[in-house]
Fold:
Amino acid sequence: MSMKDKIAIIGAGCTMFSENFGQDYSDMMVESSGEALEEAHLTGKDIQAAWLGTAFPDAGVWKGRSGMDLAQSLGMFDIPITRVSNYCATGGDAFRNACHCLLAGEADVVMALGVEKLRDRAPQESLVKMMVENGHPIMQKGFTAAGTFAVTATRHMHEYGTKAEQLGRISVKNHRHAVHNPKAQYRSEVTLEQVMRSPMVAWPLTVLMSCPTTDGSACVIMCRAEDAGKHNEDYVLLKGHGFSVSTGWDLPFFDPHHHFTAYRATEVASRKAYKDADVTDPRKELDLCEVHDCFASVELLTYEDLGLCKRGEGGRLVDEGVTAAGGEIPVNLSGGLLSCGHPVGATGLRMLYEITRQLQGKAGKRQVPDARLGLAHNIGGPGAVSSVTILGAR
Structure:
């Protein structure tokens, strides 16, 4: 079933993504939902169903194991609240489930809220250690996010001649964009030399090509499109959505047919979203994109997976400034994960917050003139899970 023009975002909210030591898990939920509820001219009592996105409830705060943590924090009782966890695509999945509830007619006003509190762990208790201790007894040993995405980076370099400096320019671009985003964790420009000389994490990915560990929350409130004007005249419409789980956590590394230069989940999800939205030439029809740049190489491969260029031409888009502010198809004007950080459960919804503000013309100095159509891309696991959402101005 196509979702085109059937669902509206009537409120969106987002905390600052940072080391929010002054806020606990509940504080951040209250802040992001408060902004969204105020914009929608609603209170928590008006929400009829909600989805809570938290990927790592064991990351030191012991919150987010079930929907009751959202109910208690926001005082939203006696309604269905479901906790969603789908690795880094958790936020996009929470949004998808909320949309389906509306289409089913089960509720009239729903909330999707993502939150993660990752900075309250000591360095010795990092997410890497947590995954090693709690993940697969064999596959998870020595298995890191940076190492996983470095494999695709090096394969793309081998197949297409992509240069490490092109990955570095993505980081330079996104940090430059973040200067104008008050919600971003890092708001300082960096030079290509700084990016390339920052400590190596997993070749060719350096520290400044890698997103930071972050706290944050983001929230969107939706209703069916025919009811949107009753709540907020400045609503944004859902034009298309695709979601795919296209491989397992370890399967790509044992699949002799996997070429490691693309993320099939993104290709599949984007095709569905484009079909819903009647988009045939995304590079020409989209006004901006927010993509999942957990590492700079992921953004580059995503250009190709989304059809913004042909396979192997992602580096050329970087060199020609196509994806920079003022370019043909600006990507990650928020600063992306590289600057905003990545509180896992909240990231996908933070992207929807950014696209919503752009389509409303409320993005300040990072505003794309006359933006009408924007895409948010959220990916999880080793590129195994992907959510692609297209929003349009009313």
About this structure: The first helix runs from residue 25 to 40.
